[in-house]
Specification:
Length: about 325
């Protein structure tokens, strides 16, 4: 079954479950535009998650999901809210959904983990998940080490369930590339940051718009939790401390609350503006619907053009016919 039929969506695009950002205004807009909106529950209490689910229901009557950061201690309480509110799709990260799979399946919930490696993808398939998001290191926020170009085809070859490509996708060319590598759809985060419905401070959006391909860097490798963000004074200080083997406490003190500073206060220098390497293609703010529609129109054009490519045997080169 295709991912669109499995989830009941029009376009095979997931909106990343970005903590503090992926809330009702964005999630509802994505669902209404035909994609899979995903509430990012990272840092939420059970009451806050219920509030966001109920707000989203007032915006859309289409399917949407909740992302669970499984390292959080209140996951059982969040799952209880998901069950009570009738959400039928869950994406997961930062841990294994194994302890909760029986509950999910008993309640007809579709489970889609985000993975950074083939090894973990195989483990997730063995657990009985319904699909997998294979996310490359180009993505914003928490990242693995393998690039999307290398990771995606290897995961597709290793599992038999649908695979969604993520990391470094912001236009129709990226969608077409993911399809060519075997994906059934894409998950996008950074491009959604540059939408009208994204509930972040204007300074956050402007930082994304102004960024280019070299504007991001990864911090937190020494802590075992690498995170990709746009470079600023706080990030530079963090990297300096890391190079000096600063303690976890010192690093966490510096970065505590930095995402909230960026998202809600618009502090582009001391806040953490989590975004991916594809920032350079996010050069205008549009509506979510305009973004998704143009992305898939372009993908269709690209794929049609590729259909006209052939290999000329005598020259062993690709030409348009």
């Amino acid at each position: 079954m295709s991912i669109t039929k499995l989830l009941g969506i029009k376009y095979p695009i997931f909106q990343g479950g970005m903590a503090q950002i992926a809330t009702a205004p964005l999630v509802g807009a994505v669902a209404n535009a035909g994609g899979l909106g995903i509430i990012g529950s990272g840092g939420f209490t059970a009451d806050r998650l219920r509030e966001e689910i109920q707000k989203t229901k007032t915006i859309t009557d289409k399917p949407f999901a909740v992302n669970l950061m499984l390292m959080m201690k209140n996951i059982p309480e969040l799952i209880e809210v998901i069950l009570e509110e009738g959400v039928k799709i869950v994406t997961t990260g930062a841990g294994t959904p194994a302890p909760y799979m029986e509950t999910f399946k008993e309640n007809g919930i579709i489970v889609i983990p985000v993975v950074p490696s083939v090894k973990i993808a195989k483990k997730m398939e063995a657990l009985g998940v319904d699909a997998i998001v294979a996310e490359g290191t180009e993505a914003g926020g928490h990242v693995g080490e393998t690039t999307t170009m290398a990771l995606l085809p290897q995961v597709v070859s290793a599992v038999s369930i649908p695979v969604i490509g993520a990391g470094g996708i912001a236009d129709g060319r990226g969608v077409a590339a993911a399809f060519a590598l075997g994906a059934q759809g894409v998950q996008v985060g950074t491009r959604f940051l540059a939408t009208i419905e994204c509930p972040t401070h204007p300074n956050f959006k402007q930082a994304v718009i102004e960024a280019d391909d070299t504007s991001t860097t990864v911090t937190g490798r020494s802590l075992g939790g690498p995170v990709r963000s746009i470079k600023n004074s706080m990030i530079a200080e963090f990297l300096k401390l890391e190079s000096q083997n600063a303690s976890r406490d010192e690093l966490e003190k510096l970065s505590m609350g930095s995402l909230r500073k960026a998202v809600f206060e618009g502090d582009a220098e001391r806040g953490s503006i989590m975004a991916g390497q594809i920032c350079g293609l996010c050069n205008e703010i549009t509506t979510v619907e305009e973004m998704i529609t143009s992305m898939f129109n372009e993908a269709e054009e690209v794929l049609n053009q590729l259909g006209k490519i052939t290999i000329v045997d005598s020259e062993r080169e690709l030409v348009l016919v």
